[in-house]
């Protein structure tokens, strides 16, 4: 594992993250694993149904959904958002008191988007929560 630094979000990053969550709420998406999962599946399905050369860049949708997934996990676990930087670059992440349990929700969404993995958000959230609760009970 490479050396990583974790820095708190600055004011601009926090505002940007809040705006992503506001966009979800404005679209009628409840910040729950179930709603986020349905939204992901619907958005991916609509995107995948287009001819490949007609598909728009999904980055904004991926980022918005990732922010929602991260917000759900962070709220349930008392985690905070930050930026993890290592030799490969920087990425938004959520982390609590156990450094090894750092989650990268936007990257997780991007990976599943590219693979067309549907119905994964609820199990992912449950796995993240269980992983942290197990680690907390043994530390």
Automatic annotation (TrEMBL):
InterPro entries tied to this protein: DUF3806 (IPR024266)
Pfam families to which the protein is assigned, alphabetical: DUF3806
Lineage top rank: taxon: Bacteria
Location of the DUF3806 domain: 59-117
Name by which UniProt lists this protein: DUF3806 domain-containing protein
Native organism: Antiquaquibacter oligotrophicus
Biological classification of the source: Bacteria, Bacillati, Actinomycetota, Actinomycetes, Micrococcales
């Amino acid at each position: 594992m490479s050396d990583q630094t974790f820095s708190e979000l600055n004011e601009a990053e926090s505002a940007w993250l809040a705006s992503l969550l506001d966009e979800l709420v404005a679209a009628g998406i409840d910040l729950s694993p179930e709603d986020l999962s349905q939204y992901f599946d619907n958005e991916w399905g609509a995107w995948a149904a287009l001819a490949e050369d007609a598909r728009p860049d999904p980055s904004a949708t991926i980022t918005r959904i990732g922010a929602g997934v991260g917000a759900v996990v962070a709220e349930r676990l008392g985690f905070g958002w930050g930026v993890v930087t290592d030799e490969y670059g920087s990425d938004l992440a959520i982390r609590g008191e156990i450094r090894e349990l750092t989650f990268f929700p936007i990257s997780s969404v991007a990976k599943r988007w590219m693979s067309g993995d549907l119905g994964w958000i609820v199990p992912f959230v449950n796995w993240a929560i269980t992983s942290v609760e197990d680690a907390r009970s043994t530390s």
